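Reply to dn_fold:

You asked what the input looked like. This is it:
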Amino acid sequence: MGSVKYLIPIWVGILVYTLFSIIRGPVGLSAYNQLNREHDKLSENMESLKRINKELEITKDALMYDKETIAMYARDLGYSRSNERFIRIVGLEGIRKPQGEAGQILTAVKPQYISDITIKIVAFSIGAGLFLCMWLPDFLENRQNRRRTRKTSRLHPEGP
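and this is what came back:
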């Protein structure tokens, strides 16, 4: 059991490295969940952009083929037919209907994680600390035994 117990710190270091890598590593669960949330946001944005694109396609088709739609947009811009008259109200010329929405720009955010080298340093430090905690009592006991042996050999010299 003496030398086998010194393998425990190695296995603990490997276990710590594995757990940290699985949970907080660059390809761990935390980074995966963050990327999943980013994917969902980008998917929602894509759906919104598709809806806006569909509305703009309908408007474009109406402007290309429907004369009434063209006349309506022309009236909004202040144009009229020769037989029509406008009454302009002073102070309201700055109020216009809002133009179509163009969507929003989303940029993907990089996931937050603990770098692999940091995880290795932590795992090695824990393993080395555990090794020292297991080795130090054996070292001190061995040193104490050597002192006792030296003292007894001085008191009982072996000789002819």
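Residues 4-85+109-155 form one domain.
Hope that clears it up.
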